[in-house]
Amino acid sequence: xxxxxxxxxxxxxxxxxxxxxxLFFVVIIVLPFVKGLSYSFTxxxxxxxxxxxxxxxxxxxxxxxxxxxKPLKNTLFFWVVTLIGTNxxxxxxxxAVNGSGRFNRALRTVFFLPxxxxxxxxxxxxxxxxxxxxxxxxxxxxxxxxxxTVMWGISIMAIWKDAGYxxxxxxxxxxxxxxxxxxxxxxxxxxxxxxxxxxTLPMIVPALTxxxxxxxxxxxxxxxxxxxxxxGGPGNASETLAIYVYNYxxxxxxxxxxxxxxxxxxxxxxxxxxxxxxxxxRKEVEM
Amino acid sequence: xxxxxxxxxxxxxxxxxxxxxxxxxxxxxxxxASASSSASEKEVTINIFHHLGEEAKRNGLKAITDMTTExxxxxxxxxxxxxxxxxxxxxxxxxxxxxxxxxxxxxxxAYRDMIKAGQILDLTGESFFQELNxxxxxxxxxxGKTYGVPLDIGAMGIYYNKDIFQEQGLQIPTTxxxxxxxxxxxxxxKIIPFAHGFxxxxxxxxxxxxxxxxxVSKFPDFFDKVQDGSQKFAxxxxxxxxxxxxxxxxxxxxxxxxxxxYAKSVQMFAGGxxxxxxxxxxxxxxxxxxxxxxxxxxxxxxxxxTASDNILGIxxxxxxxxxxxxxxxxxxxxxxxxxxxxEGAKAWSDHxxxxxxxxxxxISGADPITSDIFEYIQSSRTYSFGxxxxxxxxxxxxxRKFQETVGLDQSANVDKLISHLDTDISRxxx
Lengths: 287, 430
What we know:
Chain A: It is found in: Cell membrane. The complex is a heterodimer. Chain A is mainly α.
């Protein structure tokens, strides 16, 4: 009995350590979310003190808006391209600098450097690169100006910046793969490619899960890259769902409608992330 | 809302009477006297918000504020320049937070939503308005109340390089087909006709508006009708024709049109690399910054095939308004007073090279480009479009996005985009 009491006390002490984090989460995430949810059923303009309850009108208008398709398409495009590109390049860089030499360590720093840069600087750098270097010296017209290529231009920028981050996570996983496994595989006659598929890949699935989930979250919520590089333009060619939400909430003075769009975006991000993470976790357990 | 406003008014009156030593705060002629009599008067900092992109205009503003501080040493200024693209958002946020700047850059016509919300101070009847050009003043007046103080009169049209035109034996085109002939002739000589800097998306809008605003003179209530739903863009053949002409002009490439920014396109024109540039009057100072001595001129964009139809669309250009939240109305009015004084107006037009909204403005000593614009005004070959374009907020944003989409994508289907534009506008009318 006394033992059980002691155990409960210990558990409570452990739980109490969660309080600061939970408090932050509630104040910064849960409360605004609940409040936002209630705004989404009103015609609030974002400035006035009064607002009227209008039921599901915002949601029904949202699903009738043909302008929603472009941001939806752009967001999914950005997600898929950066997910594949950032992970692929990040993994390749990790494999390339996996050794312990001084040169490898220097390269790691270089590869990680873009991630540390401010996003505004990155956007400036790339717009400069696109219009002042690529066109005058190589005759390649700026990807960011053409409505048909602008999402590619933004994706390349994002991959360049974020690949270093993925590399670090892959690197950590790669260093944990015991060297004996490779030796054993070598003895068995496995080539470089075979060893990657049969030894390396299964061993780094946890890193893969982390990176893919992370990139999915970033990709679906993307706001900053198109906002800083093009402001969603030309026209609305690089508008993403998050920019759509922003446009309605602030410049267009339709905060109620913007909130409805934000809630839909949240549901979408949550659903896709849950499915992706679920699929990957199953893979982890299997091995 | 109403309650808040009256509270605000009471606060404003209370502070005004405190600061002005019992003066009512509106009588400007007595203010300087009271200012000098109490040298120990409390120092006041006036916040000014603007999105002037041109260095010359920023210097012009600085000159006016310095002039004011010199006359009234207790008035200091805190000038904040905001990027045009985020200006309205930042301003709205500031106003919503009760932290509005005292003086706000902008033309009342574009801020009717804020005026309706009671956020802009009514300046009707202030003495400095007597110094202003009546038509510019008329544009600052909404429902009989004057909300803005204009600095200059602006226009959009075509800058041209007189030397290139002379070498090629070209005349100023008076009709649209003549303009196209000129562009073709230049291109045949491997001279780029127009400098395009569409990386900044608003630059393409200037090209479109230089054409369309001249057109609007024939249907001044076009945008009012758009807003009450009785005018569809698709039902206006003139609108479609204007869009088609716009696309035609944009089809003359000057290189990487969509990767070149505004500043570089002005450099291209000022450096003699292109023969023409379609832009607004705000570019004069930028052109002169790059080439002070260049032999340049300006003409109205010929949109019609009838030469006499091709008048210049003009409007009040740069203007300032006062925030209703200001606690320093007296000082704000003093700023406007020096802005409209003969020296203030001269400082502005000297820096910005624009046509002053001050009615005593004379062309002597002005830039040849400015003189070309002024000639249209003096010979009454102008149409004042300022009051005709009445879209604000989201409608304005939709219309501007349309201009970018239809212009920057040469393969875009004009009819489809115009019908999309109508759909988007009608969604907002519901």
